[in-house]
Amino acid sequence: MSHEHVPLDPSVAPLGTRNFRDAGGLPAAAWRADQTEQTLVPTHCCFCGVQCGMYLRVDGRGKVFGVEPRNHDINRMRLCPKGINAYQQVNHPDRLTVPLMRRSRDEPFREASWEEALDFTVAEIQRIQGAQGRDAFGMLGGASLFSEKTYLVGKFARVALKTRHVDYNGRLCMVSAAGANKLAFGIDRAGNPFSDILQTQCLLIAGSNVGECFPVMTQYVWGARDRGATLIVVDPRETAVARTADIHVALKSGTDSAFFNAVLHVIVEEGLTDEAFLAEHTTGWEEVKATVKAYPPARAAEICGIPAEQVVQVARVFGTADRAMAWHARGIEHHTQGVENCLTVINLCTATGNLGRPGAGYGTITGQGNGQGGREHGQKSDLLPGGRSINDPTHRRQVAAIWGIEESELPQAGTSMMEMVWQMQRGEIRGLIGVCNNPFVSLPNYAVVKDGYDQLEFHAQLDFFLSETAANAHVVLPVTTWAEDEGVMANAEARVVKHNKAQEPPEGVRTDTWVMCEIARRLGQGGKFAFEGSRDVFDELRRASAGTVIDYYGITYERLEETGGIAWPCPSLDHPGTPRLFEGGKTSHPDQKVHMQVVEWHPPADPYSDEYPMTLTTGRTVAHFLSGNQTRRLGGLVEQTPRPWVEVHPSHGFRNGEPVRVVTRRGSEVLPALVTEAIRPDHVFVPYHWPYPVAANALTIDALDPRSKIPEYKVCAVRIEPAREIDPVPAPPVPPGREAYPEAQVSRTDPLPPTSPQGRGTAERG
C-alpha cells in the first residue's frame, strides 16, 4: 500500500488488516455533560508528553468534579488511567492551601500568612547572598510547569536572584536526547509527528515502555502494525508493547550503543546504506563507517547478551524498508553514555536515508507533560530563551536587551541538578528555591540527596501537595494545579498546546507566576516582572524566542484555541508551524547537513562483581507518574498499583509475593517478588514512584553522562537474596493537623505486587 492511501487518522485501519486496537470499539465521539449547570472546559492532561486532549467537568459552583475524553487529534477520545484520574487532585483533601514555615528543621511546621512567609524567604535570600555571594543561592524548576513558568524560572533566577545556579528536573529526563539532537541536527526536538508513524514500514522503539509510560501513543504503534509495519522493540524487559513486536531484542541494559553500532555494521556490509543521501546531506560518515567496522554481530552478541543472528535480522528489516522510523525514550538515555546511545540511533536513521519524510524519521518521546517545552526557554543551566546558549556572547546580548539588563549582569552557566546537590553537600550552595520537583524521590542515591538538602541553611518549595522534598523545607508555598491557571506545553512532537483554566484556586493559593513576581518585587526587580498572568509572560516569551531555532513568535493563545496545537518553529502569525523537520535532508546546522558522530561503547559506571553480579534497572508503571507526589494520593491509582515490587525471573526460585532483598553499593530494601519470564534472568526491575525506604533511587548510582549530566538510572550492579519482611510503604506527607486521605491509603499496606500481570509468565495472585 502506498503511503498516499494510508489513513492518517489512527482510529481508522485499512480494510483486511488485523486490528490490534479497539477490540471493544471506540467510545461515543459526541459525549457531552448530561446534567444542567455543568460546563466542559477543553484542556489537556497534566501528565506525560503525549498531552492528550480532555474536557474537565465543572459544576455550577465552579468546581472541577470530573473528566471526559476529548476528540483531539492527538488522542482521539482516549485517556490512560492517569488521565482519567487527574482531575481528582484539583480539589483533593491533601491540597496545600496556606503557607507553612519554620525557622529550623528541628521545629514543626506552622501555618503562616503569605506576608510572613515571603518576608522570611526574601530575608534569607538577602542574608545568604550578602554573606556568601549571589551564587550561594540556587533554584530548581520543573518540566511539568507551563512554558510560561519555565521561562519565568530562568529569568527569575538570573535577574531577580542574580545567580548562575538554576536547573530543572528535565535534567533527569530528556537531556541526553537533547544533547544528541543538537550535535547531529543543530536543533532539539523530534523530527516527525506521531501521525507519520502510521506511514512507516518498519518501526523501531528503543528503551521505551510505550504501553505503560505513554499509553495513548500505543494507538500509533498498533496503527502502524495494522497497516503492515514490522515492529522492533529494544528493551531488557518484555514490556506490553514488546509482546506485540515482530522482533524483541532483550539486550543487557547499558549495551545499547554496541548493539546499534553492530546493526549499522551489518547494514554497511550488506550494502543497505543510502549512499546518495549520505553524500549530499551528511558529514562524518566515513569516520562512523570506520568505527562500526569494529562491531560485528558476534562482538555485539557477547557484549549485549543476545544472539548474533538477531543483530542481522534487525539490520535487514530496518535497512531494506523504504520508510523506517526509530523512536526512543529513557531506556537508552539514562546512562553515562546516554548522549552517545542516542547518537547511534541517529546514525542508523541517517545512514539509511530515513529522515524528513512521512513514515521515515527519528523521534524522542518526552516523559513529562512539558518535557519538550520545559527545556526550551531558559530554566536549564546552560540555556537562555529560544534555546540560546548562555555561553554565546551574541545570545547573551540579545536576551539581556529583552530583559532590560546589561549583558555583564547576566550570570554565566550553572551546573546540573545532581551537581547542585553535591555543591549543597560541600556548602557552596547555601539556599534554594524549588518549583514543581521532588528530588527526594526522583534523584539517584537518596542518601546523598538527603544529606545535600539537609546542609542548606534555607530551602523554600512551591507545590500544591506536600511532597517528600517539601516536607524537609523551611518554607512551603501553596500554588495552583494545572486546572487553576492557563498556559502552554509542547508535547513529544513539539506541538504547542493550550491548557485552559477550569476553576479558581482555593482561597489562600497563588500561581507560581505570582509568587516569583512578588519575590522579585521584594528583591527590587519588580519592574522586570510586571506580569499580570500567563498571557503577559507568553507574549514576552514569544518575543524572546523570535528568530531562534525554537521560534514561538507566530504562536498565540488564539491560534492554539483555533488549531488545537502548532508545532514550532512558527516564525510569523501566518506560518502554519513545522510538524516535520529535516525535509529534503536539511538540518539546522549552518551547512544544513547531519553531523554524524563517532561512538565507542563503554561499560556502565557501577562495576559488576561476585558480590553484585546482576543488573538493576528502573522505570515507570502505568498507574503512577514520576515521584508519585500526585498519583500516590488518588485512590483508584493506589488500588491499581499500591506499592513497588521487584521483578525477578523464575530461575531465581522466588514465588510471587515473597520478600526479596535488593542490595546495591548504596543500600538495600525488601520488596515483594513479581515473578515473570518477561525479564532477563540477569536483571531485576523496580519502579521508582515511591519514597524511602522503598525508593528505587535509594539504590541507584549518581554517576552522570559527562555531556548531558543525566544520571545512570537504568543500570547498576545488584544482588538479590531472600528476606523475612517486606519494607512498609510510607503514606504521602500532609500538612500539620491532617491525616493522609484514607481512601487512597487502604491498598498501600497490601504486601503483594500488583494484581495485573506486568509481563508474559507473570504469576497471578490467587
Description of the molecule:
With 766 residues, the chain is an alpha/beta fold. The protein has four domains: 33-89, N-terminal domain of TfIIb (Single Sheet); 102-172 and 370-567, Rossmann fold (3-Layer(aba) Sandwich), CATH 3.40.50.740; 191-364, Dimethylsulfoxide Reductase, domain 2; 614-722, Barwin-like endoglucanases. 26% of the residues lie in helices and 16% in strands. The protein has 21 helices and 28 strands. It has a seven-stranded mixed sheet, with helices on both faces. A six-stranded mixed sheet has the order 24-26-25-28-23-27, with no helix packed on it. Helix 3 links the parallel strand 6 and strand 7. The longest helix is centred in the N-terminal third of the chain and has 19 residues, at 114-132. It is globular. The relative contact order is 0.15.
